Amino acid sequence: MGKTDTKMLDTDILIAGGGMTGVAAALAAARNGARVILCQDRSVLGGNASSEIRMNISGSSTIGKELETERRESGIIEEIVLECSVRNPQRSASMLDLILYEKCRAEPNLRLLLNTTVIAADVEDSRICSAYAVRESTEESFTIRADIFVDCTGDGRLGFEAGAALTTGREAIVEYNESGASLNRDAYRLGSSLLFTSKDMGRPMPFTPPKWARKFTEEDLKFRNHDTWEFGYWWVEFGGTLDTIKDNEHIRDELLAIMLGVWDHIKNSGNHPDSENWALDWFGFLPGKRESRRFIGEHVLTQNNIQQAIDFDDVIAYGGWSMDTHPPQGIDAKDEEPCNQPFTPYLYGIPLRSMISRNISNLMFAGRNLSATHIAFSSTRVMATCAVMGEGLGTFAATAVKRKLPLGQAWRQSVVVKEAQQQLLRQGAFLPGMMLEGNLAKLARISASSEQKQGTCSNIVDGHTRAVHGEKGVRPDLTTAGTHRWMSDPGDRSPWLELEWEEPVTVSRITIVLDTGLHRLLMLCHLDVIQKYMQWGRPQAETLKEFKLIAHDERGRMEIAHIKDNFQRMIHLPVTLKNLKTLRLEVISTNGLDHARVVEIVCE
Q1: H-helix segments, 381-484
Q2: Phi-psi region at 312: left, alpha or beta (left = phi > 0; alpha = psi -120 to 50)
Q3: Alpha helices in 442-495 (DSSP H)
Q4: CB within 10 Å: which end of the chain, N or C, has fewer?
Q5: Counting beta carbons within 10 angstroms of the beta carbon of residue 440, is it exposed (0 to 12), middle (13 to 18) or buried (19 or more)?
């Protein structure tokens, strides 16, 4: 054992990897009552979104239309991004690190182990008994026993050590009959990138490149836009023809040479004289990795699955980013477009079975190591999609723990899957074609101080929490056209909603779902041009800022909540209301919109 202390830890769920997938999985599982240990091999959370790499959290929301196609991810990732928008108008990368850290620290069921890498697994009879992790900074090691082990490492380190079935590279067309696949299977993959930020310093700022920096011409970069300089380029890409795990050090070195060479071209070629006053402010040394290992699960998600938007019985998350493939040669494919990005016709579901190992009975995984083909992965790999996968995984894992069921039994039982799906909807996640059941508000008569024709008060109990009937929404048979929210008249200065039950009900939990502009982009992004498409640095205008809830139960009429300075979409209120007769929501102010909106009221 040497001089390193080894600690024995026991938990319900071990999650390896603290990127956006792992954080969302850990928060979901912990909030649903499971004991969770989250191991992250870096000193900050967030993975490619962290201050070490600074990639924006992309997802389905690159296209959308108000009150028709609301594609942005909700649930835990929405909670995080809404908070980051309000607390981080300056767009500091470190503020996102802090928010993720705070979220994890706030959960009593969650133990966070930073700078801790899972390096081995003890497996018996195709089941992981324990994992072994090391933290060099404190000269400690950990043997961690759990019921369910989760690999959110991206590279699949835990599953690899456990002997989980996996694949790498690009499949041949004949394997899954994918039109986007290569003619023959190969080992190529998407490359990695290094980003930078820069500033206009208001005076000439010379740049002398290192001797080993690459040289580029305008001809070399003819397909790669570089007319703005405040935030570096995703197309500074290399390593797709190499092993992005074993060759990562070499890839990092070459990416530094490429990135600094591109900056040298901008500053010193004479083609971009307006860059004279600009200087590098930050640049990464940790490659943002797109692709390495993909596990083989009980289902392999394919291009055909996502293009057809298959309605999986065990849907646990959704996606909608384009099928975004890049030439494996990266920046050296100078005569090719740096990406090919066809969208699927609809938002598509991601099944639980793609997160369940085919051969290790208590191993789950989510993120870019999802069980998917290279073409399907090229869409699911982006971080907002990874985060909703993480929330789905964590919620299901906690459901299995609560029921004291081994993972191998739990995912096969439709009643357990449905329980997790219903809990996800309750938390604010979106699952195409699925609606929350058991809402006592549906039994009430609903009235309002005013309403718009397209936003009647009855919409708050129609079961839909977003409009996705428009172009690039969900499959038409999985939704109903409509705004699916109450919208007061703009002239109504004191808007209110009221639910009245003919037969009084007993309620222990009230959830208010508000409008947060899910048709719009919203992400921490260091590119200035993107800001005009967002409402960053403040609450979303559609969201209620201040409102009261007034209940009339067996004790009489009383105010049960006065919400102030709100910017979140989901308001969860534990209550004890017996023989509830009426529930009234009185709007005091919005965050800017000229009328009030409420998407759903849930009483349970």
Answers
A1: 383-402, 407-410, 414-427
A2: beta
A3: none
A4: N
A5: buried
pLDDT for the residue numbered 5 = 79
Q: How far is CA 189 from the centre of its chain?
A: 22
8 A C-beta contact, residue 559 and residue 111 = no
CB 89 within 8 Å of CB 536: yes
Longest dimension (CA), the chain: 80
Q: Kindly give the pairing relationship between strand 315-319 and strand 348-351.
A: antiparallel
Q: What are phi and psi for residue 454, nearest 5 degrees?
A: -90, 5
DSSP letters for 522-573: ------GGGGGGS-TTS--TTSEEEEEEEEEETTEEEEEEEE-S---SEEEE
Indicate the pLDDT class of residue 1, thresholds 50, 70 and 90: very low
Given the DSSP bridges, would you call strands 237-238 and 363-365 parallel, antiparallel or unpaired? Answer: unpaired
Instruction: Please provide the average confidence, as pLDDT, over all residues in the chain.
Output: 97
Sort strands 294-295 and 166-167 into parallel, antiparallel or unpaired. antiparallel
pLDDT tens, 279-338?
999 999 999 999 999 999 999 999 999 999 999 999 999 999 999 999 999 999 999 999
Report the Cα 144 to chain-centroid distance in Å. Answer: 27
With left for phi above 0 and alpha for psi between -120 and 50, is residue 441 left, alpha or beta? alpha
pLDDT at 3 over 70: no
And the tokens for 378? Answer: 């090229």
Q: Rounded to an integer, what distance in angstroms lies between the CA atom of residue 318 and that of residue 478?
A: 13
Find how far residue 457's CA is from the centre of its chain.
Answer: 31
Distance CA 562, CA 549 (A): 6
pLDDT in tens, 217-233: 999 999 999 999 999 99
> Mind listing the pLDDT tens digit for each residue in 584-595?
999 999 999 999
| Contacts for 280 with CB less than 8 Å, ≥ 6 apart | 196, 197, 198, 207, 263
Angle in degrees, CA 187, 189, 194, rounded to 5: 140
> If we measure between CA atoms, which residue out of 351, 345, 243 comes closest to residue 302?
351
